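During the reporting period the student researcher (J.K.) took over the structure-prediction task from the postdoctoral fellow and processed the backlog of single-chain submissions. One of the processed entries is reproduced below for the supervisory committee.
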Amino acid sequence: MSLVKASVVCKYWHNLIESSWTCWKRLCFLPQWQLSPQSSKEQLDRFIIQDVKENEDEANNHLAVLWKAIFIERFKLRRAWLKGRCHVRTFEGHSGGISCVQFDGSRIVSGSHDKTIRVWNIKTNSKWSVLTLTGHSGEVRCLHLEGGNRLVSGSTDSTIKVWVLDIQKEWSSIDCRVTMVGHTDT
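J.K. obtained the following structure tokens:
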């Protein structure tokens, strides 16, 4: 807050504070502004820009990080967390109890006693953002969502299924690639 207030003193201070990327970078690495390693990497990827100079070869181009924008996002996140401000969403659709949940940055996957798996798109509020996977003849008891597009589910029907979730903005393709049998109990 002090830097923002100081930046309105005069044009020189404003330009100095705006261009001082080391100041904003140093703030981002203070303990109270740290994110998890995964979240930090994702945020950094969003705020990297390629600084392309006209009439120069590619060797002189370099990546620039918008440290002030990163800090502003972290500041807003921490302030909302400390004041208890959050956006609560309720995902409805299973007809039985939920037995397991997995999630990543864009989706939540839930397994249920109703023998189905649901894939929820957390970036939209549309009722069409829910995909239902059927195939187990018993309740789904465990899930493992791998980083890319693979989901593994285990059920009381003594099977393990490997699903491929190919979800794009325009279309979705979900398919059970393999059903593993051999267990004699849940």
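The committee noted the following: The beta strands are 48-51, 62-65, 98-103, 107-112, 116-121, 130-134, 140-145, 150-155, 160-167, 172-180.
J.K. will present the remaining backlog at the next meeting.
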